[in-house]
Fold this sequence. Notes:
37% of the residues lie in helices and 12% in strands. With 195 residues, it is an alpha/beta fold. It is globular and about 45 Å long.
Amino acid sequence: MVPLRAELEPRHPVVGTVPAVKPAAGSGEPFGIWATERTSASAYQADLVALFATPGQATTVPCPGLADAVEAADPGAVAAAVGVGASRTPADAHGIVLGCTHYPLVSDTIAAALPGVRLYDSSRAVAGQALRRLGLDPAPGADPAGISVLLSGDEGDLPATARAYPVGLALAAAGPVDPGLLPPPVRDDALAGTA
């Protein structure tokens, strides 16, 4: 992240994402971390678990194909991949960390597959940090006018597949996003480390 910031900032603020392992661990309950196969096997994720969770509290749950299914806006593939993730989730898990930036878009499907399990997501904290870095008011209901989509550094349109989801539709319309469309908030102070 440091080389990227050195190259792009201050003209283009860089905001990193950190999976919500810290607040999930803070619950004191067992939890799973849903992520891509590559992220599940990464030293980065293992380091987060070692830093915040007690031994045996967190279980890595690779979810093959889920990010691709979300990216393709394919409900059948999403349902199938969520089914695989749910089958790999330990029965004693009280929470699930959504460890991929795509997963909050289908949090309703994930929640339906794991009734009573709390979902932990860092997207609100990341969005708040992005707004702060842009000098915009991150207050609830703030108008996203003036925010542009950058694709590989160039201005562009929100990808068509993003419009397949309610949050994407609201962003494409540059209107306020209904908080009911978003995953439940996680306390910002619990997400220390969001860069």
